[in-house]
Amino acid sequence: MPEDRVAVVWDAIALHTSSSIASRKRPEIAMVSVGSAVDFAGQGLQQIPADALEDILTAFPREDFKQNAVHTILSICPMNPMSVVMHPFAEVGRRHLADFVVPTVEDMLFATPFEE
């Protein structure tokens, strides 16, 4: 695959949860972000006509997506805890994993070495 296409795929994956950035990039990148928001949180779902949504869900059934997503998030948290700092996955880890301790944004802010 040409390097420029690889870069588009990389950006689309890296920015799929950063809609304010993705929306200012190439259309393919913006669409991955929009699709992710619809699939994960139902954001904008009402804009899809009912018959089109039925066709989409028939072709691509969710197959217990919610529980599988939580399971995947919970498997990522202990594997590399610092990768989810300042990311919504950290909240899922804190809620479900008793020994999952990573700093919050507030913890990090007040741990800076600046005198004020």
Ranges where pLDDT stays below 50 over 5 or more residues in a row are none
Distance between the termini: 52 Å
Task: Give the count of structural domains.
Answer: 2
Q: Looking at the structure, what is the overall shape?
A: globular
Q: For the CA atoms, what is the radius of gyration?
A: 18 Å
Total number of strands:
0
Give the helix level as a range of percent: 55-70%
Order of helices and strands: HHHHHHH
Secondary structure: elements and pairs:
Blueprint lengths: L2 H12 L4 H4 L4 H15 L8 H10 L5 H15 L8 H9 L8 H6 L6
Please supply descriptive tags for the structure shown above.
single chain, mainly alpha, globular, 116 residues
Q: Quick recap of the structure?
A:
Helix content is 61%, strand content 0%. By secondary structure, it is mainly alpha-helical.
Written overview of the protein:
The chain has 116 residues and is mainly α. The chain folds into two domains: 1-61, no CATH class; 62-116, no CATH class. It has seven helices and no strands. The chain has helices at residues 3-14, 19-22, 27-41, 50-59, 65-79, 88-96, 105-110. Helix 5 (65-79) packs across helix 6 (88-96). The longest helix is centred in the N-terminal third of the chain and has 15 residues, at 27-41. The radius of gyration is 18 Å and the shape is globular. The termini are far apart.
